[in-house]
């Protein structure tokens, strides 16, 4: 979804489009917008059932979109349009002042030196066979590229992440963060709770079974910034979270490799870091297998 956004709209420096109170703390805004969208969906379904004309339904939808745009504009501000001229003023590492006139699209394409279109997701979904997957009705821009997930083993997700970290590049990943997680001390570890000791029984669901039973899904995105390797194998990972700089760990988590196997589902990477080039072939061939819109693989995107 980020790829669609930056290729269609570009990017700007934070000085050009700064944060607002609602972007820094968005829960109330999300609640308001989500309930307005539900309200609008019920109205549109009612119009469809009453056999109103497509033109009249489209006119109502246009009015609804304007309401949502007004809400977002008042709370987040109005960003520059893709081809609007912006001025970026900054000082380089030597203290020299620079001023560049450009557009959001050109800032992304010419100044950042980063091509988001080269990145795609590896997922570990034990329910399904290896290959390229997408999720029905999951998208953010009309005509944009679909969600692209290459399904493979957890080992291949780790290899790609390790290769990126060794190249000093952080790694976006998706996981079920609420499982065996201790926010206060910053720990993600399946051995943190011993249910067997306390209750005489443990939770015996496998990763595949948790997905099938609705017990697990991708619920949160974080960033891998480090890995501890012993005898060529990862033991634990350093995770940067987005919940603020709290506690002695300053908002970072330590994630055990066992937790990675059980609760990490997605790693974003590019072909440079992938050792098994079959996975790159899946991505480039665009032979999609479509998961239903309610699939847990679509919970985060």
TrEMBL record:
Q: Which keywords fit this entry according to its UniProt record?
A: Hydrolase, Protease, Thiol protease
The residues that cross the membrane are none
Question: Cross-referenced PROSITE patterns, in alphabetical order?
Answer: THIOL_PROTEASE_HIS (PS00639)
Signal peptide range: none
Q: What is this protein called?
A: Unnamed protein product
Q: Which GO terms describe its biological process?
A: homocysteine catabolic process; proteolysis; response to toxic substance
Kindly indicate whether the keyword Protease belongs to this entry.
yes
Q: Which GO terms describe its molecular function?
A: cysteine-type aminopeptidase activity
Q: Which InterPro entries match?
A: Papain-like_cys_pep_sf, Pept_his_AS, Peptidase_C1B
Q: Protease as a keyword?
A: yes
Q: What Gene Ontology terms describe where this protein resides (cellular component)?
A: cytoplasm
What is the organism field in this record? Ambrosiozyma monospora (Yeast)
- Supply the Pfam families for this chain: Peptidase_C1_2
């Amino acid at each position: 979804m980020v790829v669609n956004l930056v290729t269609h709209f570009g990017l700007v420096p934070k000085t050009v489009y700064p944060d607002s109170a609602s972007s820094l703390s968005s829960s109330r805004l999300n609640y308001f917008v989500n309930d307005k969208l539900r309200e609008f969906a019920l109205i549109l379904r009612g119009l469809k059932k009453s056999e109103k004309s497509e033109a009249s339904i489209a006119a109502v939808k246009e009015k609804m979109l304007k309401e949502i745009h007004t809400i977002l504009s008042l709370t987040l501000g109005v960003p520059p349009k893709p081809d609007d001229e912006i001025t970026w003023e900054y000082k380089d590492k030597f203290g020299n002042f620079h001023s560049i006139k450009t557009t959001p699209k050109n800032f992304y394409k010419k100044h950042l030196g980063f091509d988001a279109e080269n990145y795609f997701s590896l997922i570990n979904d034990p329910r399904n066979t290896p290959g390229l997957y997408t999720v029905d009705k999951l998208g953010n821009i009309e005509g944009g590229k679909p969600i692209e997930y290459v399904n493979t083993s957890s080992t291949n997700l780790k290899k790609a992440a390790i290769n990126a970290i060794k190249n000093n590049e952080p790694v976006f990943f998706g996981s079920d963060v609420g499982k065996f997680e201790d926010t206060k001390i910053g720990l993600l570890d399946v051995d943190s709770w011993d249910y067997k000791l306390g209750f005489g029984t443990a939770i015996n669901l496998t990763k595949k079974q948790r997905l099938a039973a609705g017990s697990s899904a991708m619920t949160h995105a974080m960033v891998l910034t480090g890995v501890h390797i012993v005898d060529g194998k990862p033991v634990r990972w350093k995770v940067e979270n987005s919940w603020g700089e709290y506690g002695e760990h300053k908002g970072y988590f330590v994630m055990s490799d066992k937790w990675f196997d059980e609760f990490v589902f997605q790693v974003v990477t590019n072909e440079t870091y992938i050792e098994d080039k079959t996975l790159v072939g899946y991505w480039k061939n665009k032979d999609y297998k479509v998961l239903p819109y309610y699939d847990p693989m679509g919970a985060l995107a």
